[in-house]
Amino acid sequence: QKVQASLEEAAIITGAGALRTLRDITLPVPGPSVLSAMILVFMSNISNYGAPSALGYHVSYHTLTTRIYEVLQDFSLQNNMEVAAALSMLLVAVAMLSLVGKECLLTGKGFAVVTGKAEQPTRTRLGILRLPITTLTCICGLMLSAAPFLSILATSLTRAYGLPFSAANFTLNNYHTVLFAMPAFGRAMRNSMFLAFSTGGSPSDMAFWPPIFA
Fold this sequence. Notes:
This protein is mainly α. The chain is built from 9 helices and no strands. Helix content is 60%, strand content 0%.
């Protein structure tokens, strides 16, 4: 939600400093939208399997999703499917509690800023803090977005999982196996592309796709 620049200007004119304006105007206005986005990101991350598996599985650092996978693979456990379902319900419970908590926090706090003309956003000059804040923001962004993918890439290029990534442990045989020794790879790729495109299109668009599930 965009903050109306005149509100920030009014706060500054009345004597409020940058921090006071940030606390009383800039943060509260988009607060409900930011909180809703945070809840969605939280629910997406807590149900994620790929990143926790790539980063922590080899050091026995488990999350609910990796533990569910491990239980499903434990055939010595007679009720492994039921235990995995119980663990999955914990994820559902956390998601439901997150939604309920959001509703409780935002009850009676909805509002809208009405404006009839376009305005330029107010800029806050950081001065000597500009370079450190920019550097820290870039580092955090790269760590959060790139670290899981780099870990998966390194794992895909290793001969033995769990050993350090080095020249002696480097190999491309894993990609050769996927591309040339796994007949199911092509079908899996086609099915993934089909589902990705069909869920974003209309039912009429599906008429142009061949029957690939057979």
